[in-house]
Amino acid sequence: MPMPADATRLLTLRPEGLYCPEGDFFIDPMRPVPRALITHGHSDHARSGHGAVLASAQTLDIMAIRYGEGFASATQAAEGPVTLGGVEVRFHPAGHVLGSCQIEVRAAGVNAVVSGDYSRVPNPACAAFEPVPCDLFVTEATFALPVFHHPPPGDEIARLLASVAAFPERAHLIGAYALGKAQRVIMLLRQAGYDAPIYIHGALQRLCDYHLEQGIPLGDLRPATMDKAEAKTLRGAVVIAPPSAFASPWVQRFTDPVIAFASGWMQIRARARQRGVELPLVISDHVDWPDLTRTLRELNPAEFWITHGRDDALMRWAELEQRRARPLHLVGYEDEAE
Amino acid sequence: MKAFADLLERLAFTPGRNAKLALLERFFREVPDPDRGYALAVLTGGLETGQAKPALLRALVGERVDAELFAMSYDFVGDLAETIALIWPARGPLRDVPLTEVVEGLARAGKAEVPGLMARWLDALGPSERLALIKLVTGGLRVGISARLAQTGLARIGTIPVEDIGELWAGFTPPYTPLFRWLEGGPRPEVTARAPFRPVMLSTPLTEDDLAALDPAEFAAEWKWDGIRVQAVAEGGTARLYTRTGEDISASFPDIVSRMDFDGALDGELLVRRGDDVAPFADLQKRLGRKAPGKAMLASHPAALRLYDLLLWQGDDLRALSWSDRRARLERAVAGLDPGHFDLSPRLRFADWEELAALRADPPAAVIEGVMLKRLDSAYVAGRPRGPWFKWKRAPMVVDAVILYAQRGHGKRSGFYSDFTFGLWDGERLVPVGKAYSGFTDEELNKLDRFVRANTIDRFGPVRSLKPALVVEVAFEGLNRSTRHKSGVAMRFPRISRIRWDKPAAEADHLTALTDILDEAGA
User: Fold this and answer.
1) What is the pLDDT of residue B180?
2) Buried/exposed B143-171: b ≥16 CB within 10 Å, e otherwise
3) For chain A, what percent of residues have pLDDT higher than 70?
4) CB of A163 within 8 Å of any CB in chain B?
5) Which helix or strand (DSSP H or E) is residue B90 part of?
6) Chain A neighbors of B408, CB-CB under 8 A
7) With 60 as the cut, is the pLDDT of residue A3 above it?
8) Average pLDDT, integer, range B284-293
């Protein structure tokens, strides 16, 4: 096994974010930098205003959709190995959302993998997480507490459909983030055989269209921008909207809706209650505790770093497993901004 | 267990009564016997629980999970049962343990067997079923389902009226198989319960317009006491005290039940009474909160019944008689009861409505909420018929308060800011005094929602903090001192009676408007 010092030399922490000195670039920086490598299109990882951006073609498209074509001075789609300064960079699927990648940095026979956000649960919108053997693994810890065991998403969709059957006169409004979660819920519904029209809030339109362009079928989608009289006819319909819409007057057009929210946080009742959710759906695009610890055991890196989330619990796990770990306390990676 | 856990989870997050009933109905229709019957028993508190204490479960989980990881998780989740349910390491193979297996297994198990049983079940169940199991065995099941609501849900699976179910309810025991057979078209079972609950007769509110059409000579009047309406039934050596929805609260009131040495069914108000003085509702609330009150509590907060009516007496069913006849028999019956714990609700003498209105406006005690009017010829009938009995409440107290915080509502009010926290001036500061959710029209709700959105100064999760700019008149039925509220007072049934778009916040009332009322009442 190579000495850990060799791999940890590849990455360091700067105020802007995680930095590779030998390649002179940042990965998912929180502030504008001359050269950024981006793991995926969620707004806390992919920000606008960088000089050059290297990311998957889909992540670049998503950034252009969100920030406009001029979101960076120069862009390059990652295909195959790319040499930057003294290091070689490769992108590997992360299984999180459409276009999401892990970034592998290799030099002098050692490598580090920055996973970004990742999931091990199959998701038809993106390629499955690829375990890349590495000396240093940089992981998220969003759901790094042993209480997080996300149930199979199909079970949660079955609960949603049971509720639609039990309350056929009430529209079911599902809160879901615009990139990834919304399309995931739609695809899961289609997989479960639900082929009625699904109504989407205007803020989801462009990213749903982009999924279609990428060859990901979502079935019959219709805009949920109707007026109150039309909304009344949506009895028993499934409507998907970003979480922020639930605080806006948009909701008022629906008569006695069932408020649902699709998120890994819904596993905790207090979180569901705080949001005024009537039907919490535990659907996550991050690794839960069993998948996170399984991944770390499987990759068995000489050292792993924790970018954000519940690093205290994961550090305790590392101690019990006698694994070398370090928390980075990166501020600014949260759930996607609403 | 899966269907039961799903039901509990939906009930816990569903605020609307109709939605709750729909969930209950669906459950009772779909789940087979005896699981549904045991579920009914769990929901209505008809099962002995508490076989496993939280400490036992903590010990079990401690054998399986690192203590530090558990502590971090508990800290994050905030609820012990939920933490254990979520963190329990799945050992499979998963099996949907039937609720019946749990209930009957626990009933048979000796104390030493409980930990092994629990561990085996927890290993076989998924997280939400584990939570249901833990809440069930620790008795910490707070789903907010009254026996009456469960019975109403039950009634929907067939054509039997809920009043009939209520009348026979006490005659059934878990898992209620004959009850379900009856509801689904089988024969009406013979009542075998001792001292069962009889459906209660309720009154409707009286308006001033109603009054003009009524003849004072046809009515009797009594005070409307501010306690809780109960039914005391003693038959064949069994004595039980029921709420008006048929919940058995005998265990909480041994001071009453031990003195029910009669044979009959009495209707009255449960109060805390010291000598002739009836204590404020808050004192009764203390008793209601205790499942098994201690000696000190029984001495400091003695309970008593103030009697209104007599349904059965020494084997005779009196419900078809007129109120006047029943009243005469009630007066004779009370004479034989312990005067320390049973007395008669006095009949008010009045010649015309003006005289009664004057009595209502100035009652002799603070715990009187108004007056009751009962037709002299009225039979005792179940339910809430309009006409024979009226409640004529005192005009509520009002105070002008400032809206401080708002939260969005549920169901039909989804997306609308409809839940308000209001405050009163305390010197230069506004202190929160209470919350109000009702009293306004749909049109006013729209205006209130727009006001909230335009005047938000801060957000705390779902709560919006508002510029103190809107005054509302808050009506309420009573007032108690409270150590739980920052203001030191707690209102009963506060609601918004008028929105004072015209009134500046500086002219809202001061907290002393409430504390003065309490001081005057000597509370």
Assistant:
1) 95
2) bebebbbbbbbbbbbbebebbbbbbbbbb
3) 97
4) yes
5) none
6) 246-247, 276
7) no
8) 86
Q: Does A125 touch chain B (CB under 8 A)?
A: no
**pTM of the entire predicted model:** 0.82
pLDDT by residue (tens digit) across B216-246? 999 999 999 999 999 999 998 899 999 988 8
A136 interfaces chain B, CB cutoff of 8 Å? no
CA distance A273 to chain B (A): 7
Amino acid letter for position B157: I
Residue B402, C-beta contacts closer than 8 angstroms, at least 6 positions apart: B422, B423, B424, B425, B430, B468, B469, B470, B471, B472, B505, B508
Query: What's residue A4's pLDDT?
Result: 45
Query: How many residues can be counted in chain B?
Result: 523
Residue B498 CB burial class (10 angstroms; 0-12, 13-18, ≥19):
middle
- For residue A335, pLDDT beyond 60: no
**Of A247, A275, A248, A249, residue with least CA distance to A262:** A275
Chain A: closest CA distance from residue B7 (Å): 11
Out of A251, A255, A313, closest to residue B69 by CB = A313
How far is the C-alpha of A250 from the C-alpha of B449, rounded, in Å?
12
Closest residue in B to A168 (Cα–Cα): B22
Query: Is the CB of residue A164 less than 8 Å away from at least one CB of chain B?
Result: no
As a whole number of angstroms, the distance between CA B460 and CA A181 comes to 25
Chain B residues in contact with A320 by the CB 8 A cut-off are 66
Q: How close B407 comes to chain A (CA, Å)?
A: 10
A218: left (phi over 0), alpha (psi -120 to 50) or beta: alpha
Q: For B155-166, what is the mean pLDDT?
A: 89
What's phi and psi for B414, nearest 5 deg? -55, 130
Q: What is the pLDDT of residues B385-402, one digit of tens each?
A: 888 999 998 888 899 999
The helix or strand, by DSSP H or E, that contains position B232, with its residue range, turns out to be strand B228-235
Across the interface, whether the CB atoms of B79 and A269 are under 8 A apart is answered yes
A235 touches chain B (CB under 8 A): no
Structure confidence at residue B458 (pLDDT): 92
How do strand B228-235 and strand B264-274 relate by DSSP bridges?
Answer: antiparallel
Distance from A251 to chain B by nearest Cα, in Å? Answer: 5
Six token digits for residue B408? 């969005």
Cα distances from B279 to residues B80, B241, B479, B484, B516, in angstroms, run 37, 20, 13, 20, 18
Taking CA atoms, what residue in A is nearest to B26?
Answer: A166
pLDDT tens, residue by residue, B117-145: 999 999 999 999 999 999 888 877 777 67
**B13:A250 CB<8 A:** no
> In this structure, are residues B458 and B513 in contact, taking their beta carbons and an 8 Å threshold?
no
The answer, yes or no, to whether residue A336 has pLDDT greater than 70, is no
The residue in chain B having the minimum alpha-carbon distance to the alpha carbon of residue A144 is B73
Looking at beta carbons, which residues of chain B come within 8 Å of A167? 19, 22
* Nearest CB partner across the interface for B127, out of A149, A166, A273: A149
Cβ-based neighbours of A168, under 8 Å, separated by 6 or more: A235, A236
Question: With contact defined as beta carbons under 8 Å apart, do B454 and B417 qualify?
Answer: no
pLDDT band at B523 (very low <50, low <70, confident <90, very high): low
DSSP annotation string for A225-252: ---HHHHHT-TT-EEEE-GGGGGSGGGG
Residue A190 near residue A215 (C-beta atoms within 8 A): no
The chain B residue lying nearest A245, using CA atoms, is: B415
Res B109 pLDDT > 80: yes
Contact call for B12 and A269, based on CB within 8 A: yes
